[in-house]
Amino acid sequence: MALNLVKLCVGCTAIEDLAAWIDFRLDERRRAGLSPEQFHTTRMVPKRVEELLAGGSLYWVIKGNVQCRQILTDIRTFTDDEGISRCHLVLDPRIIVTEWQPRRAFQGWRYLTSEDAPADEGKGKGRAKLPPELRNELASLGLL
């Protein structure tokens, strides 16, 4: 079984915000002549890299719920300009919508076992089909 990570998606209010950010960053890298790969930088380096890269994903918490995931393709450690160890969580830019799973706020990332991870949402049904504003309003009312 693959191991996963879960992380807060700070600054996003909907999956569409995350998608727009990914598109922006990939375009920015293309314009700079760099390979168009998507990554998220963290200070803490996961110790269970092999398990994570055996089919694991990064699950994103948006507005208090796990709402989507991206497949982890690589984990690269590096030292930044200030001498601090960091890592790039390299991600498949494709967003996979999941069933919602409530999560309280936390710092950094956490491991998430496959058994505890929310299932992928079926295509064309459920919450993902609703407009983001309606989806967020229904969720804030406790109806989703």
The Rg value, from CA coordinates, equals: 16 Å
Give the number of helices.
3
Our estimate of the beta-strand percent is 35-45%
Alpha carbon gap, first and last residue: 29 Å
Beta strand count: 7
Main beta-sheet annotation: 7 strands, mixed
Helical residues, percent: 10-25%
Mean pLDDT: 89
Total domain units: 1
Low-confidence stretches: none
Order of SSEs, N→C? EHEHEEEEEH
* C-alpha geometry: globular
Helix/strand class? alpha+beta
InterPro entries: UCP032025 (IPR008320)
Pfam families: DUF1489
Protein name: DUF1489 domain-containing protein
Summarize the structure.
By secondary structure, the protein is an alpha+beta fold. Helices cover 21% and strands 35% of the residues. It has helices at 15-31, 49-52, 132-140; strands spanning 3-8, 38-42, 57-62, 65-79, 85-91, 96-102, 109-113.
What does this structure look like?
Strands 1, 2, 3, 4, 5, 6 and 7 form a seven-stranded mixed β-sheet that branches. The chain has one domain (4-141). The model has no long low-confidence stretch (mean pLDDT 89). A hairpin with a 2-residue loop joins strand 3 and strand 4. The chain has helices spanning 15-31, 49-52, 132-140, and strands at residues 3-8, 38-42, 57-62, 65-79, 85-91, 96-102, 109-113. The longest helix is centred in the first third of the chain and has 17 residues, at 15-31. It has 144 residues and is α+β, with helices and mostly antiparallel strands. InterPro entries: UCP032025. It comes from Phyllobacterium myrsinacearum. Pfam families: DUF1489 (PF07370). This is DUF1489 domain-containing protein.
